[in-house]
UniProtKB/TrEMBL annotation, chain A:
Domain spans labelled ABC transmembrane type-1: 82-264
Its membrane topology: Multi-pass membrane protein
Species in which this protein is naturally found: Natrialba swarupiae
GO CC terms in record: plasma membrane
Name under which the protein is recorded: Phosphonate ABC transporter, permease protein PhnE
GN (gene name): phnE
GO molecular function: ABC-type phosphonate transporter activity
Keywords per UniProt: Cell membrane, Membrane, Transmembrane, Transmembrane helix, Transport
UniProtKB/TrEMBL annotation, chain B:
Record-annotated membrane-spanning stretches: 17-37, 125-148, 208-227, 233-252
Protein name from the UniProt record: Phosphonate ABC transporter, permease protein PhnE
Pfam families assigned: BPD_transp_1
Matching PANTHER family: ABC TRANSPORT SYSTEM PERMEASE PROTEIN P69, PHOSPHONATES TRANSPORT SYSTEM PERMEASE PROTEIN
Organism: Natrialba swarupiae
Keywords: Cell membrane, Membrane, Transmembrane, Transmembrane helix, Transport
TrEMBL record, chain C:
ABC transporter domain: residues covered: 2-246
Gene Ontology cellular-component terms listed: membrane
Species annotation: Natrialba swarupiae
Protein name from the UniProt record: Phosphonate ABC transporter ATP-binding protein
PANTHER family, per database record: AMINO ACID IMPORT ATP-BINDING PROTEIN, PHOSPHONATES IMPORT ATP-BINDING PROTEIN PHNC
UniProt keyword Membrane, yes or no: yes
Source lineage: Archaea, Methanobacteriati, Methanobacteriota, Stenosarchaea group, Halobacteria
Amino acid sequence: MVAETEQPRSTWHRPTTFYDHRVKWGIYVALAAFLAWSLWGILAGVGLSRFTEGLGYGVTLLQTMYPPRTEAGDLVRLGDRLLESVAMAMVATAIGVTISIPVAFGAAQNLVSRPIYLLSRAIISISRAIDGLIVAIIAVMAFGFGPLAGIIAISFKTVGFFSKLLSEDVEDINMGSIESVESTGASRFQTLVYGVVPQIVPRFVGLTVYRWDINIRASAIIGIVGAGGIGQLLMTAYSRYEFDYVASILLGIILVVLLAEYVSAVVRRRVQ
Amino acid sequence: MSVESVTWERHDRRSRLLRFAFALGGLIVVLASWQYLELDLRDFGGATAAFADLATRMFPPHLEYAPEIVAPLIETIHIAAVGTMAAFALSIPVAYLSAENLTPNRLTYALGKVIVTVSRSVHTIIWALVFVIMFGPGALAGTIAIAVRSVGFLGKLLGEELEEIDAGQQEAISSTGANRFKTLLYGVFPQIKPAVVGLTIYRWDINVRGATILGFVGAGGIGVHLYTAVDSFAWRTVAIIVLAILFVVILSEGVSAYARTKAQ
Amino acid sequence: MLETHDLRKVYPTGDEALTSISTTIEGKEFVAMIGPSGAGKSTFVRCINRLTEPTSGTVELDGTDLTALSSAELRDARRNIGMIFQEYNLVERLTVMENVLSGRLGYVSNWAAFRRKFPQEDIELAYEILELVGLGGMENKRVDELSGGQRQRVGIARAVVQNPKILLADEPTSSLDPETSHDVMELLTDIATDHDIPVLINIHEVDLAVGYADRLLGLHDGELVFDGTPEELTDDTHGVIYRGEELTTTEAKRAIPAGGRR
């Protein structure tokens, strides 16, 4: 240190989070190359002119969408299907959350044996990795068109999401209060009811409402592959080029989604 | 502590009643929904059997088909990468507009909020439907759909990040005589850099997942092949595609998690 | 030489934070401004480099009226004014060296700033000053890893590296423990002597001010009610500053020579 201070130094290089500056630049170059390759991959087949042309079609599309269709019969169908979507979200949330409870406890490291833990974690990973529409498209083929396939798909997605977050809360449980209940001579079930449940109920309610909000969004589009709800109507109108009706449907979806988001935010604030 | 607070709540009759009403209301709504959808418990019993049946049909996965899905898988990754990159570039001005402390005036603030809300309340797949009409079927439409949906996400979260920056750091830099650009560079950007990098990588990870389904509406990626396979009941092919998707998604999740810890 | 004339600040809420402050600071004077919280000490210091825009009056630094400058000219003028903050206001996520070098930002191009590329002389100077403030060898540490005292030293280094004509400090010790406060005050007095520049600090700890300053300014309710050496700060004058007591005319004359001290 002293030797260093005797001579003023005239260069300084910023230390890097990477191993050294060469590694850093290597990573940057690799990343840039990857992005360039991706860009080329997307644009190679179409060219930039197709892009500008598309913007022109966009204007035409907007013109055909306006004004949105407002005939009574169409609106009734729209309302019916929207209601179906909301109902699907309700049932799927209930089913998904119910299934999630055992999975969440199974995925809490501090409560169960290793094999159960790993199994639960695998269920969670798979459920989270696969998009709901993929599950839906398979479910439709297996059980036919309609809300049942949609409910199964949304419930499946709910399990992964809900179990993961709930299991984190279960792992964070204050063991002290469990022990204090246990020390009164309570059985295992009683310990669960009095020691564990009160600690996670508020969080549980909050998560349920949050997931319900997400499920509303999901149920609005899952009909695109025939799994029931407003999405099915959207796809029909879309394939018939009834873009004014598509506009009404989209407005309906956005309205319901924003409403659900609002309700979910209000309820979660009250619970916490 | 928590046991005490619970006991206290137990004695609060009003909140107890409210909770009971809330739970009962939820239950009624779920049952009414069940009725409205004309569901039957037997359907779900049948579902289990059908899934078991499906699983046997999917086994063994059609391994010989694997080489055919490499190209669409790469296209899926391309869509996610370019879509995220474009969304990132677009989200910076959007974040600036929707940050209350930086936006020039109330009109621009409203504009920022509108962009964020519209982008976020429409699902990627619906954006894809729109862009397939405009740009024709294929990866371009999918990429734009991913980008447009991600702008709202990144714009909102980066905007919130900008709202929380420490003005003191900015002030100190400008008090040395630095101009606005340098002040942004030294006083603002270092504060939001981890969030910028972290959120972008996180969104990329989400977009890889999102890009796997774009093909259902003809917007490119592996979804096209999955759709065809499901449509022709080629369950062993479906199995290999789903496995490949699982692999890519879990891999990108790992990369994303690793890169985000590095960006702190 | 810093000269304020009739400096006034009224906030949009109608609060009059400063009422006509005229004073002169020159040489290598170490001036401490004392007064109760809310007296306007901070506003005064911030009005000098226009971090807070004064309502009326002038601030002259070596003959240039800072209040009359355009924003580009003000930027150039600010390069000559080093400022140290109560909460350090360092860029937490950058290294010590980058924080120190940011004091030279007014002298480099945008492109150089973007590449974090500073001239050799600046880097040499930065190393020298890091030694001076007792942070030799710490240049690669990130600021958020440092203690409060170390952070304030970085803050001082950032101001000194500007080669300023005056050093301003806004409550530089109030986030520090007593011992570190003494170190920082000592460092500031050393800098005033070594660099031959005046230092103006506002501070609420009177004993620190008395212990280190050459001259005290007492502010009460936005008004300059005391201007003198630490020895002249009697219990009576203390009462004037902190409780707004009236002095007898003769005492008042002694406390504030007409027209401020020249």
